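the two lines:
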Amino acid sequence: MNVQIDSALKRARGYWFVDGFTEMAAGGLFILLAAILLFSGNAPQSSFPHWFLSVAGEIVIAKLIGILAAILVLCWLKDHFTYPRTGFVRGKRITGTRVLVILRNVILFLFLPILALLAVSLLVASATSVLAYMPVWFPVALGLIWAIFFIAAGEWLGLHRFRLLAITMLLAGIAVGIGQFAIGLQAFPANLQPGVLQSSVVESVGRTLASLSFLILISGVILMISGVFTFLRYRKENPAPYAEES
Amino acid sequence: MSGSLQNLTGLDRVIHEPARLLLVALLSSVESADFLFLLKESRLTRGNLSVQLSRLEEAGYLEMEKTFRGKIPHTEYRLTQKGKSAFNQYRKSLGLILK
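prediction for all of em together
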């Protein structure tokens, strides 16, 4: 019996991701959100607050319905495909203490760095300038945050493919940032001078949303591809029970 | 006899056996799991797995719940509080020995 205890522990923790369905579902959800953002970005922007609120509302509704649908589909797929092949696992119950630990980590490692970054940006430049260079830097920062998240999750769950996902997410963020820079958007506050032609707040928000939607779209495709490959490998390694017996 | 060697003799023999240690470790990171999952992950034979699970159940470290998933009978195994404590204690003891 040549099984490492540590890797067994991690495999049990990461069992939910063993078949690739979760990545495919997450990828599908990302692509849906990107589509909403891209199509909303092309909508007439006569009244900016109204447009912004309607986009935010659409995203919240799509997220809620999408997550609910994804959970139902995932449960059905796992019931009919995964559990008969490699068994059923019930994840640990989420206790109050675990929720507090997750909240603490989100605040410490996500919100505080973002707030610190925003505060530093606002110290070195005006709010309009920060908004102006956000389309370039926002996808880079988001790609970096996702990369850190995937590396941490991969380590905790023992999923080596998450390292590859982390690298591709980071590269996608950088690529979108470079793409925005290449079309002529400002990347550094020093380049923004008073009186020189600058994009308006509405335009900056629109472009940030556009770069965000490109990043979400690319990430969705990456997740989808990873999920499909994982699924194909899982299916090959774990044939249906009746095929095993024949 | 040195302190660490005394710790070695004090190790929980039920958990110390490699197959049972693996089963307890697997179950410690989840709420519960079924026979098929434990079979696939442990790579034990069906017979051996049944014996090891029975041994853990006799020691009070494991509890079994028989349910139905649709029309198919389903057996889930989970660590008891005693089993969780024993595993934590075992890890601490082993850590002290290897220090």
